[in-house]
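Sample pair:
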Amino acid sequence: MSNHDHTNPSSAEPIPLDHEVDGIREYDNALPGWWTGIFWATIIYSMLYPMYYHWGVGPSVHAELDSDMTAAAEAQLATLGPMAVDEATIVSLGSDPKKLLIGRAMFRTNCAVCHGANGGGGVGPNLCDSTYINIKAPMDFFTIIRAGVVAKGMPPWSPRYSDTQILLLAGYVANLRGTTPSTPKPAQGDKHPGAWNTFVSSASPAVPAAESTTP
C-alpha cells in the first residue's frame, strides 16, 4: 500500500500522484463511466461472438464470403452475353477463370451442403473423380442441374436460376473432374477415364442459347 491515500470520495478535485517528470504531474482520476462501460461491453461481446458465429447458429465467415461472392457473380451475368448451351461451351469454361469463379461461388453457396465445398462428396456423390451415376457426356451436367434428380434428392434448379447461371455451374462442376478433394467420397457409378471429348454424346434434347439475365 502507498503511504498516501489517492482516493478522496468526498472531493471532486483531482488527486495528484507522488511522482513528477519534467514538470508534468499525473493525477489519479477515475475513468469516465462511458469509457468503462465500452470496455466491459467489448469483453462481453468478445465472448458472445464465437459462441454465435463459431459454435452456435450464426453463419461462418466462409458462408458469408460465399454468399457475397454469389451476389457479385450474379451482378456480372449481364456482362457475359449469350452463351450457347452445348458440350463445347461447358468444357471450354475450364479455361475461363472469371466464369469459373462465378460457377464456384454458386456451387459453394448451393451445392456444397451435399457435395462438399471442394466437390469431394457428402450426402451427394464425389464430383472430382472419373465415375458418374447420371453423367454420360458434359451436357448431362446442365440437364441434371436444370431438371434435378428428384428421386435421389437432387432438386431442380431451373425455378431459381437462369440457363446462363446453370450453364456456368455445370461448367464448374464438369471441371472439378481430376481435382483432389481433402476427404473424397468413394467412387459411385460408371467410370469414364477418357477426356471429355471421348464421352458418348448425350441424348439430352437441344437447348436454345442461354439468356444472360435471371428470369
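Helices lie at 33-53, 61-76, 87-92, 97-110, 112-115, 139-147, 163-174.
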